[in-house]
Amino acid sequence: MPRLTKEEVEHVAYLARLSLSEEEKEMFTEQLNRILEAFAKLQELPTEDVEPLSHIIPLQNVFAEDEPGKCLPVEEALANAPESDGNFFIVPRIIED
Q1: How far is it, in rounded angstroms, from Cα 36 to Cα 89?
Q2: Rounded distance, CA 58 to CA 53, Å?
Q3: Is the Cβ–Cβ distance between 4 and 34 less than 8 Å?
Q4: Which of 33, 41, 62, 82 sits a CA distance of 20 to 30 A from 12?
Q5: Distance between CA 39 and CA 35 in Å, rounded?
Q6: Residues whose CB falls within 8 Å of the CB of residue 40, separated by 6 or more in sequence, listed in order
Q7: Of 28, 31, 30, 35, which Cα lies nearest the Cα of 13?
Q8: Beta pairing partners, 85
Q9: What is the reported pTM?
């Protein structure tokens, strides 16, 4: 299996707009090569008779039904608000004029 070179890691970092130190380039080169070696080992497994799966375990919806329930009284809803005005929360402005 071909190994990644430090130059290839530098190129990928450049494309991702990442600035890596020399130490990080060496570290990521080594780590990525270990990952590629692990994938190479997986490629050796006999998988001809294995059905492709979208998930390794069966998934099911675990969300509760969206049903309206009892609302909090305004006073209780605003009890822990840092700031409020009447029945409303006061929040910091996030959109400039």
Answers
A1: 52
A2: 10
A3: no
A4: 41
A5: 6
A6: 1
A7: 28
A8: 88
A9: 0.52
Question: Which parts of the chain fold into alpha helices (H)?
Answer: 6-15, 22-43, 74-77
Q: Return the structure tokens found at 93.
A: 């402005």
The single residue listed with the structure tokens 């590629």 is: 36
Cα-to-chain-centroid distance, residue 83: 33
Per residue in 60-75, pLDDT tens?
Answer: 888 888 899 999 999 9
Dihedral sign from CA coordinates of 11, 42, 54, 60: negative
Question: CA 60, 63, 67: angle at the middle one, nearest 5?
Answer: 140
Tens of pLDDT, residue by residue over 4-57, are: 999 999 999 999 999 999 999 999 999 999 999 999 999 999 999 988 888 888
Annotate 41-71 with b (16+ C-beta within 10 A) or e (fewer). eeeeeeeeeeeeeeeeeeeeeeeeeeeeeee
Asked whether the beta carbons of 23 and 9 are under 8 A apart, the reply is no
